[in-house]
């Protein structure tokens, strides 16, 4: 499939019972991850599975993310229960586990690779901690941040280094740069604009997507209203578009 086109291709993988999916930085490969198996799929030939790795776990994979840098394009990370796992895959079709990162006391809810440092990945959990990990030394977090409520999303700023945002249910964080009461219901999605260091979007159970400027956070810059909860909202790479995933009522 060409990168930007209206072409559609459909393939079913019901036997995988996948709970998470991610596409690599080239747009060619996807990993489908579930409780019992992880499978690599070539999106140019989606009915053919490149390789699979059988898992022995009683927990689902809550999220998976490929490394955003082409130089590390063989790497992807998963979150399962309280642990992060780093995998690589080879041109021979093998998926190899490189390391595990353990630091959370509750289920990991999200992870995000740094867009500026190839070795750094952030993770957040309902245990109220957001950890930063250096994959060169995965035995413990390189830095940790605590709030009074668990986080459901963590996202790095795409323009400014060393800045990330998290979403929470609760009244306030302990030491954030800013606290923004964005929605009355749970926030399911968060994404920074690829063009502005202060602009980001949130999506919520309340059926809205809101656009924010962190330099003036008292009121949202705009709102998209949906008739159903909005599970995810993501900026397109060219910055002027937004893709949403809605949960039907």
UniProtKB/TrEMBL annotation:
One record GO biological process: positive regulation of TORC1 signaling
Keywords (A to Z) from UniProt: Repeat, WD repeat
Recorded GO MF terms: signaling adaptor activity
Record's GO cellular component terms: Seh1-associated complex; vacuolar membrane
WD repeats: 101-143, 180-222
InterPro entries registered for this protein in UniProt: WD40/YVTN_repeat-like_dom_sf, WD40_repeat_CS, WD40_repeat_dom_sf, WD40_rpt, WDR59-like
Stated name of the protein: WDR59
Organism: Mytilus coruscus (Sea mussel)
Lineage: Eukaryota, Metazoa, Spiralia, Lophotrochozoa, Mollusca
